[in-house]
Specification:
224 residues; mainly alpha
């Protein structure tokens, strides 16, 4: 099993990059160090010039892999959601009880992220913090409808579908499974942000985790 996971590759939409960063050492360093730099500076202050300086290469070398920093952010967030889907499928595939399967799924998509040794060039802990802080900037744009038609958000939407199906398996009569599933994914990001930056307007923190909150919310909703 370990050997199988070592060969696992998270597939990202091909139009998000000019050249697949997974195809070379430079490409992997671009991805690795862009995560560090966006986390340190924030997406607004991040530039390819600064990234080039960090990796000891020309700015133009970054453009050989990514058209612009928006496409790079989309690549990183797509990778994150693809990784999240892989974890969800891997952890729940053998579970037969719908309630227990949904509990495990909610735990995976809402808990604090731990580093995955199967992907050595990507720090999932730091990437998750970027997704919490910056993910909305990837789709709150004028081009969102066009990019959605191009399939840039397919991986994220597929994760919502998987969670929706698990919700429906617990209560097939519940009429809003898709809305509940997307609320969990978006809400988890928001609650993690609030507990770190706006503690006075959330109950999540040291005593109550986002996982506990959303597990209670989902199952109370499905029983109502």
């Amino acid at each position: 099993m370990d050997r199988l996971l070592e060969n696992l590759k998270i597939t990202v939409h091909g139009q998000l990059y000019v050249k697949d960063p997974e195809s070379s050492d430079l490409g992997r360093r671009i991805v690795q160090q862009s995560i560090t730099l966006i986390h340190d500076l924030g997406f607004e202050n991040f530039t390819f010039k600064k990234l080039g300086a960090l990796i000891g290469s020309n700015e133009s070398s970054v453009y050989r892999y990514f058209e612009n920093k928006h496409k790079l952010l989309l690549y990183l967030t797509n990778w994150y959601w693809g990784w999240m889907e892989y974890r969800l499928v891997f952890a729940t595939a053998a579970l037969q009880d719908p309630t227990y399967r949904l509990e495990q799924a909610l735990s995976i998509v809402t808990q604090v992220v731990k580093e995955d040794s199967n992907f050595s060039h990507i720090n999932e802990v730091i990437l998750s913090q970027i997704v919490i802080s910056e993910y909305s900037k990837s789709y709150l744009t004028k081009e969102v409808d066009t990019e959605n038609k191009e399939g840039y958000f397919y991986i994220y939407k597929q994760l919502v579908v998987r969670l929706r199906e698990m919700i429906s398996a617990v209560n097939p009569k519940y009429p809003h499974a898709a809305s509940l599933a997307s609320t969990v994914l978006e809400g988890a990001l928001h609650q993690h942000f609030l507990k770190d930056h706006f503690k006075s307007i959330t109950d999540c923190g040291d005593k109550v985790t986002p996982t506990q909150f959303f597990t209670q919310l989902v199952f109370a909703t499905l029983k109502a």
